[in-house]
Design brief:
Layout lengths: L1 H15 L6 H23 L9 H16 L7 E4 L7 H6 L7 E5 L2 H10 L4 E4 L20 E7 L8 H11 E10 L3 H6 L1
């Protein structure tokens, strides 16, 4: 319950400040998220952040990502948007998506520090998924090596411009690729 309350408060704050379309608003929104998640990084890296009752949902999300890759040939490539401390990586691994085939992107350096320490074979990018276009030379995820699946777990409601995020994800997918939008606390939590 404490976990759900903490996450709910953070999400409500993010949703209240998310208006979309205004570049100045986007920068302020991003700064608020970085500040909030930087303060909470140690909590999200702790065992309390993923209580036992959430584990089946995390596994179901990882299975959905793996299922999305099953129709495609070769080893799956997965982009985990808002990866945070890498909470889904052990579940991806259990479903057969290797750590080295996962790229995580997150705004928060302190969250990514935990992820990099726990999952050294994965690739982690610090930055805003919405700040760069798929063909931008600065971006480390490229259409030259498209992804099989892009996962937005526990982050989609926090994004400043959800339409732009989906368009960007689509541009990064290979033909037949999929987008998974999920939250381990379920739809009722997201709509609350």
């Amino acid at each position: 319950e404490a976990h759900a309350a903490e996450v709910a408060n953070l999400h409500r704050e993010m949703a209240a400040n998310s208006k979309g379309g205004d570049p100045k608003g986007s920068a302020a929104h991003t700064a608020r998220q970085v500040a909030a998640f930087s303060q909470a990084a140690d909590f999200y890296a702790s065992v309390e952040a993923t209580p036992d009752e959430v584990m089946p949902n995390m596994m179901a999300i990882a299975r959905a990502a793996k299922t999305a890759c099953n129709n495609l040939e070769g080893r799956p490539r997965l982009l985990d948007v808002g990866t945070g401390t890498g909470a889904l990586l052990p579940f991806y691994e259990e479903c057969g998506i290797h750590e080295s085939d996962v790229t995580g992107v997150d705004l928060c350096a302190s969250m990514l520090a935990h992820a990099r320490a726990r999952f050294p074979s994965a690739t982690f990018i610090e930055g805003d998924f919405l700040d760069v276009e798929a063909d931008d030379d600065r971006v480390m995820w490229s259409t030259a090596e498209p992804y099989d699946v892009v996962v937005f777990n526990a982050v989609f409601g926090n994004l400043y411009d959800q339409s732009k995020a989906l368009a960007h994800a689509a541009a990064l997918l290979r033909p037949g690729g999929s987008v998974v939008i999920s939250h381990p606390l379920g739809a009722a939590f997201v709509h609350d």
